[in-house]
TrEMBL record:
This is EMG1/NEP1 methyltransferase. Residues 26-37 have a biased composition (Basic and acidic residues). It comes from the Eukaryota. Transmembrane segments: none annotated. GO terms for molecular function: rRNA (pseudouridine) methyltransferase activity; rRNA binding. Belongs to the class IV-like SAM-binding methyltransferase superfamily. RNA methyltransferase NEP1 family. One of its GO terms (cellular component) is small-subunit processome. GO terms for biological process: rRNA base methylation. The lineage of its organism: Eukaryota, Sar, Stramenopiles, Ochrophyta, Bacillariophyta. It comes from Nitzschia inconspicua. It is found in: Nucleus, Nucleolus.
Length: 293
């Protein structure tokens, strides 16, 4: 009887040890399978990456206008946004901001001893949106330059998508003034670039220049386009482009003394207009003349 009990105990212990080994092997296989599976990404990680991917500037699609020859492409219309207020200032946190009359009014009055209304970078933002959103630019017929009050000359790529909100626009301008250029997030194309003065050195030979002022000769936008623009747009270097100088400041005028290359001062309304409204009327007149819709 004792011998039978010992044999039963040995068989029970052997069975339990085999069960333990089987459970260990199964646990090992489960762990290995779990480790081999790719880890699931959380929604937060996906949202962060998607927002970062959408933040860099992108290139807009520019169409090919009719009348393009086989020569080197050249935009037949050039616009200089002159006297733009683009200055940076360091805040209390040690970060740079774009100087403006809303956020730095006390600084302008007390430290700079200047009228805060002179610092209006939002005017430049509005004008750039009006020009870049125009069908003339989307047709690939427009080139934009910016000249600041600090004699900084900036070249704007025609296919840039400028930020729609002022806050992001201000951050972009601060980055440009410090790094001297801005490139596309998904391409090596330079979208904004600080170039050498004077502006006249970047104009092709034979370019006709006109300045905008409420004191200039009055034209309707369509009559202006018919009188100074060719019948059809020519994007080759065989025909020089036409340049327009538009003010990007809150007060003051564009003068021939500051721009000796200006042929004539013109106006497109009997009423004082904002820079963005004047730019929109100018683009509309040229688009009507060339049949761009």
């Amino acid at each position: 009887m004792a011998r039978n009990r010992e044999e039963e105990e040995e068989s029970d212990s052997a069975g339990s040890s085999e069960e333990e080994e089987d459970s260990e092997e199964e646990a090992h296989r489960t762990t290995k399978t779990t480790n081999d599976r790719p880890k699931k990404r959380s929604k937060t990680e996906d949202n962060v990456e998607s927002s970062l991917a959408s933040f860099p500037l992108e290139l807009a699609t520019i169409g090919t206008p009719s009348g393009v020859g086989n020569g080197k492409k050249q935009e037949p219309v050039i616009v200089l946004l002159d006297q733009a207020s683009l200055e940076t200032v360091k805040n209390k946190r040690g970060m740079y901001e774009l100087l403006n009359c809303d956020d730095h009014r006390d600084l302008c009055k007390n430290k700079l001893r200047k009228d805060p209304n002179l610092f209006r970078p939002d005017i430049l933002h509005q004008e750039m949106l009006a020009l870049l959103d125009s069908p003339l630019n989307k047709a690939g017929l427009l080139r934009i330059y910016i000249a600041t009050t600090k004699k900084v000359l900036i070249q704007v790529h025609p296919s840039i998508r400028i930020p729609r909100t002022y806050k992001r626009f201000a951050g972009l301008m601060v980055q440009l003034l410090h790094k001297m250029k801005i490139k596309a997030g998904n391409d090596s194309t330079t979208l904004l670039k600080v170039i050498k003065n004077p502006f006249s050195s970047h104009l092709p030979p034979g370019t006709r220049c006109f300045g905008f002022s409420c004191e200039g000769t009055l034209y309707s936008p369509i009559a202006l386009a018919k009188s100074i623009m060719p019948v059809e747009p020519n994007t080759t270097t065989s025909e020089p482009p036409t340049c327009f100088v538009v003010g990007a400041m809150s007060t003051g005028h564009i003068t021939i003394e500051d721009h000796p290359y200006i042929e004539k001062m013109i106006s497109i309304s009997s009423y004082p207009l904002s820079g963005a409204a004047a730019a929109s009327r100018l683009m509309g007149g040229i688009e009507h003349h060339w049949g761009i819709v």
